[in-house]
Amino acid sequence: xxxxxxxxxxxxxxxxxxxxxxxxxxxxxxxxxxxxxxxxxxxxxxxxxxxxxxxxxxxxxxxxxxxxxxxxxxxxxxxxxxxxxxxxxxxxxxxxxxxxxxxxxxxxxxxxxxxxxxxxxxxxxxxxxxxxxxxxxxxxxxxxxxxxxxxxxxxxxxxxxxxxxxxxxxxxxxxxxxxxxxxxxxxxxxxxxxxxxxxxxxxxxxxxxxxxxxxxxxxxxxxxxxxxxxxxxxxxxxxxxxxxxxxxxxxxxxxxxxxxxxxxxxxxxxxxxxxxxxxxxxxxxxxxxxxxxxxxxxxxxxxxxxxxxxxxxxxxxxxxxxxxxxxxxxxxxxxxxxxxxxxxxxxxxxxxxxxxxxxxxxxxxxxxxxxxxxxxxxxxxxxxxxxxxxxxxxxxxxxxxxxxxxxxxx
Amino acid sequence: xxxxxxxxxxxxxxxxxxxxxxxxxxxxxxxxxxxxxxxxxxxxxxxxxxxxxxxxxxxxxxxxxxxxxxxxxxxxxxxxxxxxxxxxxxxxxxxxxxxxxxxxxxxxxxxxxxxxxxxxxxxxxxxxxxxxxxxxxxxxxxxxxxxxxxxxxxxxxxxxxxxxxxxxxxxxxxxxxxxxxxxxxxxxxxxxxxxxxxxxxxxxxxxxxxxxxxxxxxxxxxxxxxxxxxxxxxxxxxxxxxxxxxxxxxxxxxxxxxxxxxxxxxxxxxxxxxxxxxxxxxxxxxxxxxxxxxxxx
Amino acid sequence: xxxxxxxxxxxxxxxxxxxxxxxxxxxxxxxxxxxxxxxxxxxxxxxxxxxxxxxxxxxxxxxxxxxxxxxxxxxxxxxxxxxxxxxxxxxxxxxxxxxxxxxxxxxxxxxxxxxxxxxxxxxxxxxxxxxxxxxxxxxxxxxxxxxxxxxxxxxxxxxxxxxxxxxxxxxxxxxxxxxxxxxxxxxxxxxxxxxxxxxxxxxxxxxxxxxxxxxxxxxxxxxxxxxxxxxxxxxxxxxxxxxxxxxxxxxxxxxxxxxxxxxxxxxxxxxxxxxxxxxxxxxxxxxxxxxxxxxxxxxxxxxxxxxxxxxxxxxxxxxxxxxxxxxxxxxxxxxxxxxxxxxxxxxxxxxxxxxxxxxxxxxx
Lengths: 410, 297, 364
Fold this sequence. Notes:
The structure holds 3 protein chains of 3 kinds.
Chain A: H1 2-27, E1 31-38, H2 45-64, E2 72-79, H3 84-97, E3 101-103, H4 107-112, H5 114-120, E4 124-125, E5 142-144, H6 147-160, E6 168-174, H7 178-192, E7 197-204, H8 212-220, E8 225-229, H9 232-245, E9 259-262, H10 269-275, E10 283-286, H11 296-307, H12 312-315, H13 318-339, H14 346-354, E11 379-381, E12 384-390, E13 393-401, H15 405-409
Parallel strand pairs in A: 1-2, 1-3, 3-4, 5-11, 6-7, 6-8, 8-9, 9-10
Antiparallel strand pairs in A: 10-12, 12-13
Helix pairs in contact in A: 2-13, 6-7, 9-10, 13-14
Chain B: H1 2-32, H2 39-57, H3 61-84, H4 92-112, E1 131-133, E2 136-138, H5 140-162, H6 164-174, H7 176-181, H8 186-212, H9 216-233, H10 238-259, H11 268-283
Antiparallel strand pairs in B: 1-2
Helix pairs in contact in B: 1-5, 1-8, 1-9, 1-10, 2-3, 2-4, 2-8, 2-9, 3-8, 5-6, 5-8, 6-8, 9-10, 9-11, 10-11
Chain C: H1 16-19, H2 26-45, H3 50-75, H4 83-101, H5 106-109, H6 112-131, H7 139-159, E1 169-170, E2 175-176, E3 179-180, H8 186-208, H9 212-222, H10 224-229, H11 234-260, E4 262-263, H12 270-283, H13 290-315, H14 320-341, H15 346-359
Antiparallel strand pairs in C: 1-4, 2-3
Helix pairs in contact in C: 3-8, 3-11, 3-12, 3-13, 4-6, 4-7, 4-11, 6-11, 8-11, 9-11, 12-13, 13-14
């Protein structure tokens, strides 16, 4: 009986000591709360899942390496299944918890909660680069150039590198939602503003098993370039059908064939996995460093993934990089506010983000250019890298570009 | 003209895949009068099992294809045994909701694995070069899909026409009490119907997965897409599923081939089946080949 | 009527009029009044966080929608797999007003009660139209007809630029006698509004079931040919069941639009339709109090699973998939278990509990 009591007391003592240690570990610094809501399941979860992993890992890394001294970041990450209702619920809860910055995901929910962000005066970093996020809004900071800017830049690339006579004839292959349609309007505006190309047709895809009809129709209208703005798997199906029909250009801009190009979410390693050889020569814009083009940043990215036991697929995904990037920007903002001796709250972080330009611009290791924000510019990385698929991997083509027409049509 | 024929060929290809996906629904409905809303999830499960066996375990794809058909055969059979056997004689809303609930459970189980969220694709095992004939082309993947579909459907038709088990299944679908009175085990037939449906779902999953790549969202949405097909063909007719599948495939391809891009329309291929479905339901609710049910007070 | 107005030990009705009373005894009435007073009073005493208030409001809206679904599926026996689309019709009625006259027009901010009722009627009109196939179709075929309505609704919203292609259409803040309802009071204010709606509609259903129109619903469910022989019009009854259900859904949709201050198409998808069906079944099909139990049970389950998953996620690093898998898994499991072991839903437990307390300490 006595032995048992002693054992029990010992166990209690051990527990008490453990608690004391965990308590002291936290007692040293302040805890900054952040919230993130994104689609880990449901539509677009193929992008949301690695994105969440990137953010989670980077914040862990920040806390473990004491990047903010004794202070730590506590970022709650929740699944919203791409539903605005659930995102709103998560956001309200985060507000109740007293977050200082909010990380969002989908286009739908970013647009849907825009007014709440305004009223709460909280800085938001979404994963949606929809240009419409910036309309009537002061608190949404796009991490990289908007889809519109990417599509327009891609159109400019087409015009500049057009092979053959006359205007470049292009078709747009887009997602059947506002996400897909938004940038097309801007591309049309760019054409109206003098961009020397003709948009022959805008195709909204469905759940197609076969795109032969569409591709043949485009051929009959003399289309030479197909610009896509959607997610990876419809593009993969289209590329496979095009390869099967022998319509894919062997080299960029080959006459009488189709050259395929695409914006941010249409590309990535999954596309190569899905389409195989059919995606050879596919041209893609992205503002992130890819692990297929090794540099200092990708080494760090891979090391981070390794440290937290992520598989190769997640580690090499550009969505993982995008997830890290928003976490980096958030951490950097907190760090700068702290160094300036400001209290870490919504207003000061908003101010800090707005001051991130000129010599104060911030270069995260995941992107190809620096992040610049100001009162008038809420798109972070303005530079875009053109990548093209060669030998089963995305390789850089030329130097980073920037859209010229985007400023003209605003 | 080759544009027209290309659309016809694509329509037949897509349609026969619909037919194969619809087959599972018809098999279950024919014998047990249950509309299976979890069919899409079984299709997805079949595809992922094949992928797992091929890529992770390393079995040649042909054998893992067969193995996954065997696994879904027993999976579907046990689903029937555990969940649906208890609901024989319950109102139709309960049965529909149980299959919906089952679908949700399988969703959860698939989300447990990495397959739930990411894109995968089968290794290439067929020649990449397409088969071209007079300006109309078809890939080996699609062709093999069509061939497998017709083999399976032919096999099932033979099975129902000639084999004792098949005939007893038909007997049950015709008259359960009559079948029982001549010594057929009705629950066993139900189990078998589910099992064969599972088998065909795995085949459909692999073929769809081979064409579009493996994405859970895409795969399991087929469970809903095939409803217009089975209604058009008649819920309890295998021949109906084939004919209606091909008709739907053609309609979809023609809609996206000739309607899209004109008059500001887009994505009509996705909604056309449902509009046609409503029209059929209003004018010929039992479909092209379905059996008319006569009710008496 | 028994002599004692407060307690009744049995059935003492002598006229049909007495049987139609809303409350059997004065005790019932006082209990119910007290309960209502509590429901309306507690937000004045305690202050809940915005998130909890939002969850409660959301449950109340689901109750309105499920009441409508229960009318058509539970009482009239017509399976509807497109209920979220009807809710969407209501929400998009408000949204179309916002699109045409601007989201802070006086009609939207001041005359919102009228707009909510108007949305209900729009829902009813669409309900009647979608109910037309019910004249010819039954059972599974009807279910699939409603499913195709759901799909067509989603396509229309998604492709029409008038509806902003499914992206959020904003709805302005409303005014009350005390002025503009600000962000702080928003959720509490709508709690009172939605609760009032729930109480009115709840009494509506209860009284409806005592009239010939309500009884004809049940008769048509049990056997439409027999109902026909009894002199009811099954065709008309089915269409009007759909219309009535559409009305409830439309009101729910309008409330949803105002509560979330925006309308986006993700809230009205097939998945939501299935959710409403699950709530109706878990609550108890064909019962009024089931309409309250179902949404409460399903929504709370959802929240509990979420926090459980979060807890598990802290102890199982990099196993995000476990956390997200739990939600659909438990949702499906609850539906299946209820259908297998308690097909009459939570309403049946309520019935058992009530009769037990009534007869206590006797067993029967």
